[in-house]
Amino acid sequence: MYHELTLTTARTDGGGIRRHGCALPAEPPAAGMARRLTREKLCRWGLECHADLAELLVSELVTNAVRYGGGPVELLLEERSGRLRCAVGDRRAELPHLAPCDQDSEGGRGLHLVDTLADDWGVDRDASGGKTVWFELTPPPLPLPA
User: Fold this and answer.
1) How far apart are CA 138 and CA 145, in angstroms?
2) Own/partner pairs for 113-117, CB < 8 Å, 24+ apart?
3) Which of 42, 73, 83, 134 sits CB 3.0–4.6 Å from 24 for a disulfide?
4) What is the percent of the chain with per-residue pLDDT over 90, rounded to a whole number?
5) CDD domains from the xrefs (predicted)?
6) Where are the alpha helices (DSSP H) in 15-137?
7) CATH T-level topology, domain 3-9+17-95+111-137
8) How many whole angstroms separate alpha carbon 54 and alpha carbon 102?
9) For residue range 67-124, what is the model confidence (pLDDT) as tens digits?
């Protein structure tokens, strides 16, 4: 079970910032819930171009938060002018790091995927002592006129 919150904030330039947040349980099914919510929200927002990649990267971050974060996991999706920001927060203060990947290992690739596939990513500490790992995806370039 999760709790959802959807916000739309008007900008002064007439555009809008769309946000959708939810709290997920710190249990293995949270990754699947996050994938479904991400795809559903992006399709509703007309951002199908980001759905597959965002779904994969959100799943990796939520899996890490469940495995290492301790406590509930928060997912926030935010869209502004086609630019998508996905953020996953947990209660653990320790910051993640890119560890060397062993080719034979079954895990340890989540942050490497984010680092390789996202247009930008980072980690922010929060006031409660936890952290939020986020990534951004930019809209694909518009096709050139024929």
Assistant:
1) 21
2) 113/56, 113/57, 113/60, 114/57, 114/60, 114/61, 117/53, 117/56, 117/57
3) 73
4) 65
5) HATPase_RsbW-like
6) 29-44, 48-68, 110-117
7) Heat Shock Protein 90 (3.30.565)
8) 24
9) 998 889 999 999 998 899 999 999 999 988 887 776 666 666 789 999 999 999 999 9
pTM metric for this prediction = 0.85
| Adjacency order of strands within the sheet including 3-10 | 3-10, 16-24, 73-80, 83-90, 131-137, 120-125
Q: Give the number of other Cβ atoms within 10 Å of residue 12's Cβ.
A: 5
Instruction: Give the pLDDT band (50/70/90) at residue 54.
Output: very high
- Dist. CA 101–CA 109, nearest whole Å: 7
Residue 134: DSSP 8-state? E
**Three-class DSSP category at 132:** strand
Give CA angle at 3 (131, 138), nearest 5°: 55
Residue type, 6: T
Biggest alpha carbon distance in the chain?
Answer: 53
